[in-house]
Amino acid sequence: MSEQISYKQFFKNYLILIGVMLVVFTLLIYLSIVSKKSWNNNLKTAVEVVLDEKQPNTWSVGKNIDINNPFTMSGACYEARNRKNGEVYKVMVIRVVTNYGPMAGVFSIDKENNVDFIGFSNLHGRIEKQVSSMSTSTCKQINYWEKKIPQILNNK
To answer: In sequence order, which residues have a C-beta less than 8 Å from that of residue 145 and are 6 or more positions away?
Structure first.
């Protein structure tokens, strides 16, 4: 024998399901908004470490620059002031695929949109020097990003 469920009971169960789903989605959205700030702060710290290793006491990294482009999932852009000449640059950290796997590459962009590769944020010391010397001049990915980054930043 099949039981008949009344419309009242059906809609009550349906509203409970919708309420639970609404709470779960609200929680997910809240967590993603909260984690975005710490994600940006950690990337900013990684950029500062790379800049200080390459040119100590030369750069001060500022606020995050929003990029209205799908590439924001692969990187972030920050203002950086050169303490020696006072010029404001943009510094971008973006995922670069290398022979050793994906690495976070740090690039500087001046006012004329000239892009320079600075280094990898997850490599330090002797290993970083070896990987950078092997890949800086010959790495097609670094050359690709040096040409692509001005297009990304100008696509606002």
So the answer is: 94, 96, 105, 107, 115, 117
What confidence tens digit (pLDDT) does each residue in 67-115 have? 877 766 678 889 998 888 888 889 999 888 777 778 888 899 988 888 8
Helix (H, G, I), strand (E, B) or coil at 17: helix
How far is it, in rounded angstroms, from Cα 89 to Cα 65? 11
How many other CB atoms are there within 10 angstroms of residue 36's CB atom?
A: 11
What's the pTM value of the predicted model, to 2 decimals? 0.72
Q: Report the C-alpha dihedral over residues 52, 55, 61, 66, rounded to 10 degrees.
A: -110
Q: Do 119 and 54 contact (CB within 8 A), yes or no?
A: yes
